[in-house]
Amino acid sequence: MDKLPLAELEVAAEAGQAEAQFALGMRYHRGDGASEDYAAAARWFALAAAQGHPGASNQLARYRFEGLGGDKDVEEALRLFESAAASGDPHHVYDLARALEVVGDDMGRVAQLYQQATDAGLDDAAVSLGVLYQEGRGVEQDYLRALELYEGPAAQGNGRALNNLGLLYVRGTGVPQDYARAAEYFTAAVELGLPTAMTNLGVLYENGYGVELDEERAKALYRAGGRQTEPDAEQQSALIYDARLKPLDLSEQVLKDVQSRASGGDPVAMFQLGWVLLQSPDAPFQNQFQAAALFRAAAEAGYAPAMANLGSLYFQGKGVPQDFVLGQMWILRAAAGGVEEAKNMSDGYIKQMTAAQINEAQARAKVIP
């Protein structure tokens, strides 16, 4: 089903085929061949779930639990999670356990569900079960059991398991305290991109525990792990240049030509001029303001790369008031316009948004003024 053209998939879904309805929902969920649209995805998941499709029930449960694509409804979400988990799929069992853990309902059963998924070979479930043993929730506290549960997934490169092993060695719980070994585990998790591990490793570098004291390294890790109020350098430079265009020669004559064409309303030139204005990481506010105006004009003229950059500026609050909804709206429109990088931009920024903001951005992205 995943390989079918969108039009054929829609025909099969409209005909009532549950697998097609689920596959179509996933297309909208991922923005694969269609604009990312959680409300549309939820509609198709609901139709497939009504026919007993476990995957659709699980996806719809996730939406209802978070309030994505519609109203938040925890009671309905738990019913759907239960239905999906009844299939025995360890991923669905794991999701049910996570949801029950969040609501704090029957931690003994949560532990049993994590054990069931662990027995089926799901590493994430083993890590979550290890946390319960480490903290003594739903099971009797047992640091050695937690250690055992972490070690298998850690050997397979599971970032959470590596980070949690590091914490055991930092605290000396169930193992001899060993900051150097903790640093090794945190470093391995950092290399996998786990933000929590970045913060934990930063603490070791800031204090010289198990590693040579390095305050600059600690600050860099804190920034990467999310201990910041301003966007980091990588985020600030998260602007794209249209790969279809030749690299821009920044000579005086070329810039004059670009400025002239931009003044004449050429959206490509407006995009290029906005890009030039923001090339310095410390671009002054006036440059940011002018670039945002240029990107907006080009975006409103239908130039998709400008939409992506305008969206990024809204997320960063550079040249425009920070607005996650407008930022995501423009990035989604850029993705629909064929900008491949927009999907990665969306995935990165969406983590900062609430469910309500995501829903509003997706609704606005479908309405072209």
Verbal overview:
By secondary structure, the protein is mainly alpha-helical. The chain has helices at residues 6-14, 18-30, 38-50, 54-66, 74-85, 90-103, 107-119, 123-135, 143-155, 159-171, 179-191, 195-207, 215-225, 233-236, 252-263, 267-277, 285-300, 304-316, 324-336, 341-349, 355-365. Helix 5 (74-85) runs antiparallel to helix 6 and helix 19 (324-336) crosses helix 21 (355-365). It is flat. 44% of the residues are buried. Residues 228-237 have low confidence and may be disordered.
Topology, number of strands: 0
Number of helices: 21
Relative strand content: under 5%
Largest sheet: none
> Residue ranges: pLDDT <50 for 5 or more in a row?
228-237
- Shape by Cα distribution: flat
N-to-C series of helices and strands: HHHHHHHHHHHHHHHHHHHHH
Quaternary assembly: single chain
Cα distance spanning the termini = 34 Å
Computed Rg: 24 Å
What is the structural class?
Answer: mainly alpha
Short description:
The chain has 369 residues and is an all-alpha fold. Helices cover 68% and strands 0% of the residues.
